[in-house]
Amino acid sequence: MTKRKLILEDGTTFVGTAFGSERESTGEIVFNTGMTGYQEILSDPSYCDQIVTFTYPLIGNYGINREDFETIHPSINGMIVKEVCSYPSNFRSEESLDSFLKAKDIPGISGIDTRKLTKRIREYGTMKGTFTTAEASSEDVAYTLSNTLMPRNQVQRVSTIKPYVVPGRGERIVLVDFGMKHGILREFTKRNCHVTVVPYHTTAEEILQLKPDGVMLSNGPGNPKDVPEAVEMIQGILGHIPLFGICLGHQLFALACGAETSKMKFGHRGSNHPVKDIASGKVYMTSQNHGYTVERDSIHKERLMISQYALNDNSVEGLYHQEFPAFSVQYHPESAPGPQDSNPLFEEFLTMIQQHTRRERVACLNVKI
Question: Which reaction is catalysed here (predicted)?
Fold first, then answer.
């Protein structure tokens, strides 16, 4: 078995066993607390340029199948596990995690103390790390890492290049792809919506020309402030078309309304995060994956109101616009992987669209009269 090192930018070094691709890789080290869903996680574009530590000790036990992917080409830079299963047992399994990572040129490391690594991230925050050979100097690699800037064009790299249509007979939705999980698309097609997926840099004018009933802002990787063209687009469609934002879409919606975002110490990544809805008083278990948050003190209450917040750290989890038909959530209601508690938000969005359409028709009739 080939030995591999994981070296962090502070010099902390872990020695384990290599699996997956043989190449060296650098990325932001983050951790995910989900017990299941590793296939959805490794294929989620929101993990672009990141190396994911799985806190659950055994990963790969139910293999890889063709149904649970969230994108065609994974953007993750690597996987860190305590133990990787070489011989999965599941009726849907078509190959092992190791063989899939080899095919996709994604490196992994197993046999390290993932609990120790997770505790270090929790204490000092996310940091850069590198998979390298067992002979590499930890001091030299750490010095290089500390003087290396991570790329900031993640959304550009994971977004679709050209628009495409998934036909349906229901509401016409424009889905802006900032790194969209296929789960979001599945939720709309399940409801017979006509979905047009467009690139991240699509302008407000181009979206309005499509005459959609609603606009969906998808999830995606990186810092929301690195996508200023999306903020400008959102400002151009607010008040014209109902809008729903998820994860990065939530943060971009907040920026467009004058709020601020900031990087979290180690983020929220897992499938068991409790969120409280202020209006109903209900608590939902949610699936989350984000390293940035909307700053609570920056929210201008004459425009935005907080609808939901995280019970673990009181961070903002939901917003709604007080004047226009628009709302957003920080977590993933498409829940792949994760609980289904918040899935009705898609129905709420479609109801908002129908109410807006009725108001528009009444307004037209009044004008004609």
Answer: L-glutamine + H2O = L-glutamate + NH4(+); hydrogencarbonate + L-glutamine + 2 ATP + H2O = carbamoyl phosphate + L-glutamate + 2 ADP + phosphate + 2 H(+)
**Is 235 annotated as a binding-site member?**
no
Burial class (CB in 10 A: 0-12, 13-18, 19+), 95: middle
Q: Are 311 and 162 in contact (CB under 8 A)?
A: no
Answer yes or no: do 139 and 167 share one domain.
Answer: no
CB atoms within 10 A of CB 339: 15
Task: For residue 345, give both structure tokens.
Answer: 């938000």
Q: Residue 134: exposed, middle, or buried by beta-carbon count in 10 A (0-12, 13-18, 19+)?
A: exposed
Give start and end residues of each alpha helix (H) in the chain.
38-42, 97-103, 114-124, 138-146, 154-158, 182-190, 204-209, 228-237, 248-256, 345-368
How many other C-beta atoms are found inside a 10 Å radius of the C-beta of residue 194? 18
What amino acid positions are annotated as catalytic residues? 247, 332, 334
Q: In this predicted model, what pLDDT tens digit does every residue of 267-322 receive, in sequence order?
A: 999 999 999 999 999 999 999 999 999 999 999 888 999 999 999 999 999 999 99
Q: Comparing 360 with 96, which gets the higher pLDDT? A: 96
Select from 146, 174, 191 the last residue of a domain. Answer: 146
**Are both 164 and 134 inside the same structural domain?**
no
287 is an annotated ligand-binding site residue = no
As for how many domains the chain has, the answer is 2
200 assigned ligand-binding residue: no
The arithmetic mean of pLDDT across residues 154-168, rounded, is 97
Shared-domain flag, residues 211 and 349: yes
d(CA 140, CA 162): 42
Residue 86 structural domain: 3-146
CA angle, residues 315, 321, 327, in degrees to nearest 5: 65
81 and 33, same structural domain? yes
CA torsion through residues 249, 257, 264, 227, sign = positive
Q: What is the pLDDT of residues 223-254, one digit of tens each?
A: 999 999 999 999 999 999 999 999 999 999 99
What band does 142 get if pLDDT is binned at 50, 70 and 90?
very high
Task: Look at the block and give the residue holding tokens 């616009």.
Answer: 321
For residues 109 and 368, the model is more confident at 109
Q: Any known ligand binding at 248?
A: yes
